[in-house]
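Worked Example 4.2. Consider the chain below.
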Amino acid sequence: MTIEIRLQQLIDALNVSVLEFARQLGEHRGEKVYHILHGRLKPRYDTLEKILTAYPQINADWLLRGEGLMFKQLSSPSAAITTEERLRNMEFLLFQLNERMALLQQTNDQLLAELAALKANR
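Applying the procedure from the previous section yields the following structure tokens:
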């Protein structure tokens, strides 16, 4: 999954507009974020740092590499993520699992076809 897709998913999960998201990063207009979302720009380090500073609940591993949950699992009750954020995490994990299952099914189908072809050639 590309950084553009992850940023769009993040904006959707935060339930903010692209302009509001950009403003949280200190941008007066949303052009830079729009360009990133449409693949015309790659986010620079300072932009990623601003995202993680503005939204400390975001998991940096997820943002940078697409690994883990979108939001951190915080241990202290005062910093606990909301039920809505947990639900979004679960929805995202289910989406990832569905993608992986589809890929595994496709690989399995290809292997079965290759096995059938090998048996037919005997």
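The CA atoms of residues 36 and 74 lie 29 Å apart. The chain has a mean pLDDT of 86. Compare this with Example 4.1 before moving on.
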